[in-house]
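User: Please run a holo structure prediction.
Assistant: Happy to. Please share the sequence and the ligand.
User: Here you go; the ligand is adenosine-5'-triphosphate.
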Amino acid sequence: MRIVGIEGTAWAASAALFDTETGEVFIESDPYEPDSGGIHPREAAEHMSDAVPAVISTVLDHAAETAESDGVDVDDDEEPSGGRQAAAIDGVAFSRGPGLGPCLRIVGTAARSLAQTLDVPLLGVNHMVAHLEIGRYQSGFDSPVCLNASGANAHLLGYHNGRYRVLGETMDTGVGNAIDKFTRHVGWKHPGGPKVERAAEDGDYYDLPYVVKGMDFSFSGIMSAAKQAADDGVPVEDVCVGLQETIFAMLTEVAERALSLTGTDELVLGGGVGQNARLRAMLAEMCEQRGAEFYAPDPRFLRDNAGMIAVLGARMLAAGDTVAVADSAVDANYRPDQVPVSWRDDEESVARDPTETGEIRGAEATVTFEGDDVVKRRVPKTYRHPELDERLRRERTRAEARLTSEARRVGVPTPVVRDVDPTEGTIVFASVGEADLANGLTEARCRAVGEHLAAIHAAGFVHGDPTTRNVRVAGEKTYLIDFGLGYHTGHVEDHAMDLHVFGQSVEGTADDPEPLLRAFEAGYAAVARTKDRGDGDEEDALTRLRQVEGRGRYQ
Ligand SMILES: C[C@@H](O)[C@H](NC(=O)OP(=O)(O)OC[C@H]1O[C@@H](n2cnc3c(N)ncnc32)[C@H](O)[C@@H]1O)C(=O)O
Ligand SMILES: Nc1ncnc2c1ncn2[C@@H]1O[C@H](COP(=O)(O)OP(=O)(O)OP(=O)(O)O)[C@@H](O)[C@H]1O
Ligand SMILES: [Fe+2]
């Protein structure tokens, strides 16, 4: 089977030919490089209208040449639509979204017209799922967690219940765009990522804010602090080291959390920022230390390229997942979890049964049981810069000891804290529960988690990481543990994030998440109402949750 792919969501006008027999992926790309500033949608679209036909034409020439040399039966004398025979092409795949609307429309038009000329099926590919599938395809991994680190996106995906679930994602901009904003601020030409990587070779570490909430994260605070530092005269090379160390440690940490939550031991990387050697080294080191396998595709398959579109297109065609021209409108906000995954078995899942894989390993700490006590030690993470590592372990150990006790004082079951040593990063707790909630999800227990979160929110703090592995259960009693990412706040957005983190962890692993989530929200609403201090803030958390879930982050 031979598939043409067409890409042009933002900056790369690209076409490719994927031959499933030989495995060859021929890619022709023409990047848009703005003279100044970032990507201008109108200029990018002008680039697409010139460059897309040209790259397609090169790929069709290549297709015609290889069709002949591969001995495919070629008959150039056929009628006009004989191009299909001449190039031996079986389908046309195109990036349907997400991306810049004006660019997508040009790509869509080109793809439809090529499919009609060749008289072959059209395949509408989700660009982010293509970033993921190329790594899965090349690695041969079964059901990995995928970290997509691209310009306009940053998220963790895992396949479960027939869809790619978003296990965690950026709460504001994509990771590449965040870096590019900083480089624009200091007057460097787009794209900024490679320039930051080069400058960082000559700098020293500079501390910047580190923001992880469960498996979600945000970049806005880091970017403001980085710009401010540059304005204040901190050497730009040092800020670049700080940016790389902070942002990539965050991505590595959330990737490790996703491995821990799902119990899988396979990680693949996707997206243009994945070309960064420091990010790859951190991910590889983290995986090696947990005994997980890591795969990063070659740079030509990481940055935007039509090869990944053609490769996924071939799988879709094999599954009969084609789109009629009339239904093939592009979608600038096309989320990866909206894609019905026709080319995988519904039964497959990123979530591993812990009874099959043995123990589930925590992401941050080692936990050992000593009699009725549990000793939790935040082990140094060698992938992190030592200064950052020391700071995070100390701050989190302190926060965990303090908030675990505060929660108990407001009536939420938590383990008694027997001893704490922030410098060593150790806490000794009383052991609680018989199992993690992840291994015993029921509606009643989810309802109790909702009640507990409402109680601590009313008391003025958030948990920060309320996943199903951070709740212990015994009968109908549920305990919250692992408050290391918690902090004091009265902001409704922070409350909504706690709810969002729990919801994502249920959706990513449960067989039938809906009733569990309804019970969770009902529990939250019931307690929030009784604890409402009259400012309406507590009940708003559920309303805000809907906004958090519906936010389009792909512009
Ligand atoms: C929707 C689609 O248009 C978008 N594509 C995209 O963002 O292009 P991609 O090729 O995946 O990533 C480009 C980003 O990748 C960054 N980048 C490239 N090389 C880098 C490097 N060595 N280090 C860090 N960032 C790098 C660039 O600065 C830029 O922000 C996406 O996938 O989100
Ligand atoms: N007090 C406790 N009583 C019983 N079991 C506990 C206790 N504390 C931790 N555990 C067990 O150890 C596991 C890991 O603990 P914890 O979540 O605190 O570590 P972690 O490394 O921060 O994990 P992660 O960051 O992946 O959530 C828990 O899922 C739970 O099974
Ligand atoms: Fe991309």
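The CA atoms of residues 81 and 535 lie 68 Å apart.
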